[in-house]
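Figure 6 in text form: structure in, sequence out.
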């Protein structure tokens, strides 16, 4: 279902002088307006400060014609060069396929067909087995294929004799299953047509492609024309023809590469060591990469625009949308001592997470609070999250930002939170930016994507780096930059939970996309298949950073220990919070014991996902726990899988229940560096509580004041 008003930007982070193109779909009835705002708070909960958007129409405002632009999911390969050459009078084509939804309607394996005239051919999987379609004629084997089974499939057609043949053969036969055979018939054959070759789909009249295939395809070939080897150019959107004609192609909508093929034996798990074992591509009819919408308007960042989180606010009739983006300072010219690192890798990995929770009560709250109206449960045509599974049951390994990012919106409600707002990611992190604004603290903004590209030099000018509530996903580049910054005297305030946990990959050859492989352990909604643990984008082993010997404890002192429902509890101060060395953190804090039993995220500062100190995983010996949460209901919270493995209370001195906690931790580093970690996703939700005048707010201010060398007094 096409949204009434929605859009996306071609870039998420820009500096002065750089231009962002906005691509908007509006169903009218009249033109839509667009104006620039700075997003200070994106929480629509009336119990909090409410949405706060700073007007910047002096920098941009305009009115533009409405038009509807569609998303077109479904992945395939296209060989445009095939339009030019003639076609043999006799066709002989084959491929190896591993179907995942063979009982579905027709799904095309290989085609070169004119959608208007029907000329050409299509080798198609149907519920009745493989079929060859030429014009209006179809030859079909009549024997259904099995799911998750490798087959050799083939077709031939001869213009001179009019004979059509199609066949299928399992590479491994199953007892008492008849799924092998061939069919033939005689009919007029018109093979040649000035059309491209498609693999995994065929051309359509009203859209780029139709009848997209679900499953793996390997080694498609057309005798005398082309033979494609998917084990080559693995890290790209290109497919290579090893035949004499050089009919190379390109992939559309990002099907999954580095997939086990028919030759895989289990002897090698790394595709780089045995590419011919990974010569398959997994296509899905719900893949989506680049919507390729036309530009509706562009915005060039003017000189002097303050670094921050901005949005292009759209309006048409009663419909509203805001497309966020980040403005960072000019290169080498920081404007503050404090920099906020926006967790854009995590935002993107979770983008368009269809949770299946958007029921009537949830819809009513969205309407009453005037929250962001578009939910992924209603708009799966805009692509899925890597927390979803494809329609064929396989995990979603890629996420793109070149599409409407429904969850990447201020005022977006992810959950029906009975004690708070139910925010995740960019709107949840606006609790922090609203707090910084309320405290009168100047800050610059950079993103994970920026840090990945530019490294530690991007951080060096700043006294302190702040994270948001959930900096979960990182690359080697971003971890190296943060570690290098701390080791060289920088200070980090990790103000969230479940941070620095999963490894992701980017690739310049695949713009706008991010890859994740759900390997081995970890809290996850799907698991990568055995042998498919290495990224296609960079060839690195995927999964938890812990599995690559870089657990988060090494960086920030604490690591993910427990997950529960969206329910927050309090912290209890420890002895170190009162000693002469660390008492400054709690200066002005009113509570002498329990604090943080309030907030806009689950009703408390310690909740949902929790981190704890663990010296076995690399927490520094000088790490000090200032406070810990406790009392989390075991009905709502569980210890994560990897923490259970090998757990022995006689060695640790702790019970499983005691592992369910958030540890607020302080670590001094060489050269004046330091790390302050809170270990909870819901922590930042407590900053705005009670008009920002609360103990969580005060102690966070104390740490920021010292780390940033701000020399400020408490403003409230």
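Output sequence:
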């Amino acid at each position: 279902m096409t949204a009434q008003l929605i859009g996306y930007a071609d870039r998420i982070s820009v500096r002065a002088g750089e231009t962002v193109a906005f691509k908007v779909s509006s169903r009218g009835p009249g033109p839509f307006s667009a104006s620039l705002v700075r997003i200070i708070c994106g929480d629509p909960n009336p119990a909090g400060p409410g949405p706060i958007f700073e007007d910047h129409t002096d920098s941009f405002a305009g009115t533009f014609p409405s038009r509807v632009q569609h998303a077109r999911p479904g992945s395939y390969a296209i060989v445009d060069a095939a339009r030019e050459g003639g076609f043999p009078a006799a066709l002989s084509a084959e491929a190896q396929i591993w179907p995942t939804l063979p009982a579905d309607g027709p799904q095309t394996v290989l085609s070169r067909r004119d959608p208007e005239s029907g000329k050409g051919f299509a080798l198609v999987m149907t519920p009745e087995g493989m079929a060859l379609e030429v014009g209006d004629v179809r030859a079909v084997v009549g024997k259904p294929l099995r799911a998750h089974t490798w087959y050799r499939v083939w077709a031939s057609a001869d213009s001179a004799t009019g004979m059509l043949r199609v066949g299928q053969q399992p590479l491994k036969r199953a007892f008492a299953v008849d799924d092998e055979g061939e069919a033939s018939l005689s009919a007029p054959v018109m093979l040649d047509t000035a059309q491209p070759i498609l693999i995994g789909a065929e051309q359509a009249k009203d859209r780029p492609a139709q009848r997209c295939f679900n499953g793996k395809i390997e080694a498609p070939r057309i005798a005398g024309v082309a033979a494609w080897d998917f084990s080559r150019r693995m890290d790209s959107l290109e497919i290579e023809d090893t035949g004499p004609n050089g009919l190379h192609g390109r992939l559309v909508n990002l099907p999954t590469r580095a997939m086990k093929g028919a030759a895989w034996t289990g002897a090698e798990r790394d595709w780089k060591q045995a590419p011919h074992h990974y010569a398959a591509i997994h296509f899905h009819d719900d893949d989506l990469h680049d919507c390729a919408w036309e530009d509706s308007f562009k915005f060039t960042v003017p000189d002097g625009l303050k670094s921050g989180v901005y949005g292009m606010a759209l309006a048409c009739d009663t419909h509203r949308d805001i497309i966020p983006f980040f403005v960072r300072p000019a290169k080498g010219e920081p404007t503050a001592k404090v920099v906020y690192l926006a967790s854009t890798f995590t935002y993107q990995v979770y983008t368009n997470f269809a949770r299946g929770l958007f029921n009537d009560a949830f819809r009513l709250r969205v309407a009453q609070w005037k929250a962001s109206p578009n939910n992924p449960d209603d708009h799966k045509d805009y692509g899925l999250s890597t927390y979803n599974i494809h329609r064929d049951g396989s995990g979603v390994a890629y996420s793109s930002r070149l599409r409407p990012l429904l969850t990447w919106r201020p005022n977006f409600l992810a959950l029906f939170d009975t004690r708070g707002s139910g925010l995740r990611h960019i709107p949840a992190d606006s609790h922090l930016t609203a707090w910084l604004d309320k405290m009168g603290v100047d800050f610059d903004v950079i993103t994970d994507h920026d840090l990945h590209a530019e490294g530690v030099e991007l951080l060096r000018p700043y006294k302190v780096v702040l994270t948001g509530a959930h900096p979960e996903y990182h690359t080697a580049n971003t971890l190296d930059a943060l570690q290098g910054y701390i080791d060289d005297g920088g200070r980090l305030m990790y103000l969230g939970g479940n941070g620095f946990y999963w490894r992701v990959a980017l690739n310049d050859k695949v713009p706008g996309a991010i890859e994740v492989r759900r390997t081995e352990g970890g809290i996850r909604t799907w698991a990568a298949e055995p042998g498919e643990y290495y990224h296609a984008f960079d060839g690195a082993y995927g999964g938890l950073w812990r599995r690559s010997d870089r657990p988060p404890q090494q960086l920030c002192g604490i690591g993910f220990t427990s997950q529960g429902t969206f329910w927050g509890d309090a912290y209890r101060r420890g002895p170190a919070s009162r000693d002469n060395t660390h008492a400054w953190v709690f200066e002005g804090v009113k509570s002498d014991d329990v604090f943080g039993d309030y907030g806009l995220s689950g009703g408390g500062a310690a909740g949902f996902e929790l981190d704890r100190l663990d010296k076995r995983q690399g927490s520094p010996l000088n790490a000090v726990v200032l406070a810990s949460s406790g009392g989390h209901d075991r009905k709502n919270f569980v210890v994560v899988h990897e923490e259970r493995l090998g757990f022995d209370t006689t060695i640790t001195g702790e019970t499983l229940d005691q592992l369910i906690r958030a540890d607020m931790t302080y670590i001094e580093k060489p050269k004046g560096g330091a790390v302050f970690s809170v270990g909870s996703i819901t922590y930042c939700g407590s900053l705005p509580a009670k008009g920002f005048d609360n103990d969580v707010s005060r102690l966070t201010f104390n740490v920021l004041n010292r780390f940033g060398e701000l020399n400020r007094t408490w403003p409230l």
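Caption detail: The chain has a mean pLDDT of 96.
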